[in-house]
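INTERNAL AUDIT FORM
Audit reference: QA-55
Scope: verify that the stored structure record matches its stored sequence.
Auditor: D.O.
Record contents follow.
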Amino acid sequence: MTSVLSRYLVRGLFGGCVLLLLTLVALFSVFALIEEVDDVGKGAYTILDALAVVALNAPTLALEMAPFAAMLGTVYGLAQFIRSNELLAVRVAGFSPAWVMFRCAVAAVLFAGVLVGVEMASRPLGKDAITYRLSKLQPDGELLARSGYWYRQGDKFVNVASYRRDTEPRGILQFEFDGIELKQSLFARSATARQGEEWALDEVVQNRLDSMARVERSTQATLAWQPPWGALDEVLNFPIVSLTSEELYKATRRHAPEEVLLERTELARRLSLPLVVLALSLFAAPILLLRTERGGLGAKVTGGILGMLSLIILQQILVNALLLAGVPPELGVPLPAALTLLGALGLLMVVR
């Protein structure tokens, strides 16, 4: 009997989180589509392209809405049980608030597991949305700025002049200096780019300057070349939010900690998402349980929602304050969620 009741409550709470997530994604996707419509007609960008871009960005939007969905879904699920007097029957049967909160925790963990799968799919789809949108907006399909992509590594400067969707990079230039004097240069008409591997440069011209400033020129049909950047995606200068967690981690390992603060913050935010979902779900439960003795259902739900929205805002303010104070993102980002979780356990002691 207990296992059947547990599954029933978990299913209702988990379903509430998923329902609210889909609702929020649908609502904000409409707003995103309204923004995209402003660019319809530019280049080859059509309304169908706008719909495709919004659809590709939907998984990323779902991750952004996940904390709100966890909070609202728990409130919604418990409200349905209160409306049907099922929660009252559970309490009368002798089940404690802690028992109910544990079922909320199980539903939150299941919901977080779904988000892990969404995370794995969302970032590549987000990159596809960016490149697809740029290729349609530009008449020639160019994905880079007029000056191309520039990268510096010590005394080495590299430029990729052109990169179009579904084609290879073109116009690769590399200059290497010795102090202020040019040491050697390289030019390749095009390249076969491979993610995280060497590039195969085509029609290569190399110039080397000796100690007498005489130029030694050599040409090659192909040349294996290791780009100085860590990933092909860096050439397109994707926003941090579109990078995968693996790419963010590699970026934090390639550079000094103070140079990749944004990448560290974004990675910490993603790794903390399951904790945030769990903390908000558990904090919502005692608020609703605490108010079951007085007030109508509408007042209980409204009070719970307003309280949780205020909590989310306070969490973000605290995160920003900790980061501005110099606290490492690995500590500053998950700390407010951990405090919220402790607060939920504290509220549980008040609920009878």
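Auditor finding: record pair retrieved intact. DSSP finds nine helices and six strands in the chain.
Action required: none
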